[in-house]
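Section 5.1 Outputs to date
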Amino acid sequence: MDSAPDVAPGVPESTGTLELVGRLTTASNATFLAMLGETEVVYKPIAGERPLWDFPDGQLAHREVASYLVSQVLGWSVVPETWLGEGPHGPGMIQRWIHADETVEPVTIVPEGEVPSGFLKVFDGFDEHDRVVTLVHEDTQVLRRMAVFDAITNNADRKGGHILPLADGRRYGCDHGLTFHDEPKLRTILWGWRGLSFSEEELSGVRAVLAGLSGSLGRELAAYLTGREVEALGLRCERLLAEGVFPRPEHDRHVIPWPPF
């Protein structure tokens, strides 16, 4: 892989010194809340990435930036502004901080079979008291777009906590380090549309990404992903367009991230 630029293509370079405000202790990797001038950001230094058996070391930040580039081509604002930059602990991912509305739950657990209006069932399971419960998520256009984005990027870690809801109905996705593997890795809690047909808007988004791979998007992604991963991205887009439906869970591997929240 070529060495990545200091700032992601297509992302304006921010000026000023990154100042740490605090650490997000619930994150798997070193993750900090920081200020860049007057802007609140998340900073994930590459040095703080935990090694994984199925993803190469030191590349999670690159995949987060690549995810933002794909989101930009889609035009759906799935991913907040994201780039590579320098911080107190070395180079890493920097992303605009999103103030989520904690009173909104795009993904939740309800008593068995009691799916609220406007929600879709994902699966039944057991809670900590061994009661049967049902995991559900919103049936909205913005969340459908996120599910399409996850299928395109082969997101292996779409937990409920990786969906940031705003009170005005917008939904942002975060934590996209486990993306773009060249083998099938889709693990998500957004299975409610499995097997349903894509809308024309969703198909147009997939076409835009596929077309972009032979142009500026492909050139930009080459700084963050291997050639094999970019090729696999194109093949996924072609398959999604040919099938025309949301992916169905594959039964020979784990398809739900754990824990789901």
